Amino acid sequence: MIEPIEATHTSADGARRIVELATATGTTMSDQLLLDTLRRNAQVTTRHIREDFLEIATATTVLGYVCRQRSEYIALRGDDPAWAHEVGRYGTEALAVEALRMRRG
Q1: Are strands 72-77 and 62-69 parallel, antiparallel or unpaired?
Q2: Can you tell me whether residue 56 is helix, strand or coil?
Q3: How many CB atoms lie within 10 A of CB 37?
Q4: Considering the entire predicted model, what is its pTM?
């Protein structure tokens, strides 16, 4: 499933700069490169459900959850915590959130 990405002023400018750079250098652009640029600039919000459990979402979609277990932060991909799939285990909460934000759908 492809998730909608909000085209904010910042993400549109970033994509435009990449297209201009590709044109100037004579390289070809791919749709995947443009999508990756927009994905990098996608804004997410975090909401504490419990002290050790965060919900990560864009303006329109829940991306997943970050759960703390001991000294690790587990990134769970999916809109329902009961059915979410583990993306990875990270040393910090910020890395786990970033993993969910950058993860392809």
Answers
A1: antiparallel
A2: strand
A3: 18
A4: 0.61
